[in-house]
Please model this.
Amino acid sequence: MDAQKPLKILQFSAEVTPFAKTGGLADVVGSLPKALRQLGHDVRVVMPRYGRVSPEKFGLQPRAERFPVPLGESSELTTIFEGTIGGGVPVYFVENPRLYDREGIYMYPDDAERFIFFCRAGLELCKQMGWQPDILHCHDWHTAMVPNWMKTIYKDDPFFARTATVYTIHNLAYQGIFGFRVLEIAGVAEQGFIVHPDTADLNQVVDFMARGILFADMINTVSERYAQEILTPEFGERLDPLLRDRRDRLFGILNGIDTEVLNPASDPHIAMNFDVSTLGRRGVNKAALQAEAGLPQLPHVPLIGVISRLADQKGFDLISAIIDPLMRHVECQFVLLGTGEQKYHDMFDRLAKRYPDKMGVFLTFNTPLAQRIYAGSDMFLMPSRFEPCGLGQLIAMRYGSVPVVRATGGLADTVQDYDPRTGVGNGFSFEAYDAMALYTALVRATETYKHSDVWRRLMVRGMKADYSWTASARKYADLYYRALAARAGEHTPAEYDVFKSERVSL
Ligand code: ADP
Model:
C-alpha cells in the first residue's frame, strides 16, 4: 500500500467546537481534522444538528433533503446540513427534531438512539454522495456502533469493502451502557450481546465502548500514559481484559490544541494581547480577571485558576479537603469556572461566601471567560484522579499560566515537576492521589512564585512549547494506514475467533 496516498476520512463525533461542546472531545474534533487536511487528506466530520446549532448563525446549507436513514425495522427521513469548522473541512449536520431539539447534549433516556441515528446517517450519506471513505474515525462511545456495523450489517457491502475504522477513546469512564433494545434500533440484534470470558457482564448489557474496542481496526487513546494505564484494573473501568486482548492495536496519541484560536497574541476575548516578548502586558489580564471575579487587584498575590467539569474525576474531593487551610494559611487567590455535579456547585457556592476576598466562583459554561482565566491566572490547577489527556494544562501553558497537576495520564506526559536544584521542569506535579500531596504541590508553587525570575522562566518555557496538532496529526495519519493494512488482512486479528456472539433477551 502506498503510505503517501491522501486519504478520505470521515470523523464521527457527538461534540465539535465551535458548534457543541462540553469538554475536550469537542476541541479535538474541532481542530484535528484541520491539521489532517493540511497534510493533504480529505477530512470531513459528521455530527447531530442539535437545536442550539442555528443554521443562520453558522451559515449552514442544506446538503440532502428528505434523506432516509435506516432505524430499527424501518427508516426515518432527515435533512443533512453542511457547514465547516474552517480550514476547508466540511461538517455534515444530521437533523432530527425528535432526537436533537433539546437543551443539552447528553443524559437523555434515548441517548443510544440519538447517537445511533447520526452515525447511521453519516454512513448512508457517504453512499448518497458517492464519496467512498478510506477511514471512518469514531470518537468515544457515542460513535462506537460504526465499527460494529462495519463487521456486521455493512460487512459485505462493496461500497465499504476497503474502508477501515479507527476508534478513539477520549474517556474510558463514559461507556454508554444500555439494554438489548438498542441493538434492535441499531439493526444488529441478530448478533446479540458480546460474550467475553473475563468481562462477564458484557453478555447482560450493550456497552458501546466495549463494541468500539472490540470491532475497530485500530484503537487509540489520547496520551501514551493513559494508553498504558487503561490496561490495568485500576484505570481499565472493567474493560481492561478486553483492551489487553487488543493491545497489539492500541496506541496513545497526545492531543494538540488549536493554536490559532488559542493564541494570547491575538485572542479577542482577553483584556490585553501578549506573547513571550511582551510578558509585562500579561498583568493587565490578571488585574482584569481579579476585577471580574470581585477580588482585590493585588498584582503580587498568586492567582490559582481552575476550569473544569465539576466531576469526581477531576480531583474535587482533594480540593475540598485542602481548600480551607489553603485559603487561611497561604497568600493566594482562587478563581473557578465550572459546571457539573450539584454537590460541587453547593460546595463552591459556600466557599465563595466564606472567602469573598480570596475566591471567585463562576458556575457556568463560558468559553470567552475560560480564555480570560487562562490569560489572567498565575497557575492552573488540575489534580485529576485520572486524565486521558487533559487540554486545560496545555491551554494554560500556552497562555503563561503554570500548571499544578497530578501526575496521571496526559498530565504526566505533558507536565514535568519543577526541580529547584536543576531548574528542570515546566510546572508542578504530585504522584499520590492524596490531599497532602496536593497541598504540598500548591505550597511549592506559591513559594516558587515569589522568585519572579524563576517563575518567568517557567512561564516562558510553557509558552514556547509546541502544543499544535502538527506532530500528532502525522501520528493519526500513520494509524489510519495501519488500520487500512489491518482491514486488508495484513494484520491478522485474533479476536474474532475468540469472541463469539450469542443472542440473550432481557
Ligand atoms: P474534559 O474533556 O475531561 O472535560 P479537558 O481538559 O480535556 O477535560 O478539556 C476541557 C475543555 O473544556 C477545555 O478546553 C476547557 O477550557 C473547557 N471547559 C471546561 N469547563 C468549562 C467551562 N465551565 N466553561 C468553559 N470552558 C470549559
